[in-house]
Write the structure tokens for this entry.
Amino acid sequence: MPPVPHQGGGPAPVAPGPVQPGPVAPQPGPVAPQPVQPQAVQPQPQAPMPQPGPAVGQPFPPGPQPGQPVAHWQQQGGFQPPVPPPGPALSPAGTPNWEALAEQNEQSAKRGRRLKLIGVVTAVVVVAAAGGGGYWYYQHGKEKTPVPHGAGSPTPTVTGPSNTTSAPPLKGIDSPPTVGSLPAKKGAAALNLGADAKQGTMAGFSGQVLKLPSGQDSFASTSTSVVEVNKSFTVSARVLVDVPNGNRSAVSQGDGQYYSFALGRAGNNGHDQWYFKVQVPGGGSAIAWSKGDATVNQWVLLTGVYDDPSGQLTLYVNGAPQSSAKSAGVQPSGSNSLQVGRLSSNSQWADPWHGAVADIQVWDQVLPEADIVKIVAGPSSPPSIAPTGAWLGG
């Protein structure tokens, strides 16, 4: 039978039948028509025929029926309202059982609170476990020094002095074997002699000298460090060279890739001059040259002074200052052993001395000029500051 058109101002009645579970809130905005199950017929001025659902094209879902309370859900932000859980069956009159709904909502809220509490506890346990594991790895995995979870940049660890013994000296470049030694006149380091190095005397010189005819076996060296090059120091020796040209090293220190310091003769702008030079950390050298040419077959007192605070090195020839140079420190070399008659260069022995060397002395400080002058006079006028090491003295 065709539907009877609705007349009057009230909402159109619908056919009796079961109602959708739970209240449905009225919406401020348009939503898609929702199918409505037939409800009980309410008395109206005209007796309508049962309807299968909302009228086609109706812009809003049907409002609440007379006698039915208005739900309190409100749509926000253009989203569909939440769908309530299925409610209890309505009473025979078509009215929801509000006590049952309230009890069900309370149970649902309790379940939500329990789930939320469980989630929070689980998160705390996970974070604590992760943090604890990170801390254990930080404590026990010190090689890579990982950072605990949540920490910022790793903080450097300051380590105190170690109780272990110091490391052995670095091994120097290979050297020919030695045959015998000369005891030190001051200090504990003896000079070990190469096969061609000969102790003896020379005309015109009072005291013992070390004769060095040049060559790979023409040298003498200590087995241990003599001068601490990271501090101020002074080195002095009487030298005689008997060839007119060529680079010659009388006294040096170091058996590493390059020497730490050296006293000797070398070419400079077409002239063979005396020098005092040091190896600069990072490469290169600083050199203080003599004012005049180096003499041949004459004894000369060469003295080199390095002042660590100022970084200045100065050469003295026979007690007279020659020139100075600046250096940003002095590079250690291998075992820092003292070398007589040679120096290390590019991991090889070089600049062999040709002549004789005597009266070798070292100080662990800057020797004043007045004391340097006294050295020239010989053993009869010793300096006021005793050397820390001495060999072949008169």
